[in-house]
Design brief:
By secondary structure, the chain is an alpha+beta fold. The protein has two helices and 14 strands; from the N terminus they run βββββββαβββββββα. Strand 5 and strand 6 form a beta hairpin. The protein is globular, with a radius of gyration of 18 Å. The N and C termini lie far apart (about 55 Å).
Length: about 170
């Protein structure tokens, strides 16, 4: 299983605790390992869950640079803004990995984009979920750059606008 262990007799699935790693760090992969990379500058996180691993393999993740993201924003088919974006590096091949991006709650039109050889393309994974905790997860066997885009739902957007107006008003008064 990916990131856990099934006990047939008790009919329970135990999920392993993720190994916390700072963005840019490298982890050696083992069977069923779960990794959680955190960018200390932005607080953004990406999780990676692995099933059966053969051989000696490593995996690392770094938050994407603004220059990489600017090329995505220029793409006319991009709907929304990049909510989370990461560059991945590994010598693992031919194995499904579950990637999990923390994008926040109340996002509409969630899409996954893949950056390969400097070109962005929309990525359609075999499995894509957006859970109630604000995590977008999808499977892949191709590792380079990925971004998740989306549009905050109207109620959230309205609250952000109202909050901005309140801050402007407060600044004028003070």
């Amino acid at each position: 299983g990916v990131g856990g262990k099934w006990d047939y007799f008790s009919k329970t699935f135990t999920v392993s605790t993720p190994t916390a790693i700072a963005a840019g760090g490298t982890a050696t992969l083992t069977n069923g390992v779960r990794l959680l990379f955190t960018d200390t500058n932005t607080g953004k996180q990406i999780g990676a869950s692995f099933g059966t691993i053969f051989g000696v393999n490593t995996f690392s993740a770094v938050a994407m640079s603004q220059s990489e993201l600017s090329t995505l924003s220029l793409n006319p088919t991009t709907d929304g803004s990049a909510l989370s974006a990461w560059d991945l590096s590994t010598n693992l091949a031919g194995t499904d990995v579950l990637l999990s991006f923390d994008v926040g709650l109340r996002v509409q039109n969630v899409n996954v984009w893949h950056l390969k050889n400097g070109v962005w393309s929309q990525y359609t994974p075999n499995l894509l979920t957006y859970d109630s905790g604000g995590i977008v997860s999808f499977t892949t066997q191709d590792f380079s750059g990925y971004a998740v885009t989306g549009v905050p739902e109207p109620a959230t957007l309205s609250l952000l606008v109202l909050g901005g107006f309140a801050m402007l008003r407060r600044r004028r008064i003070g």
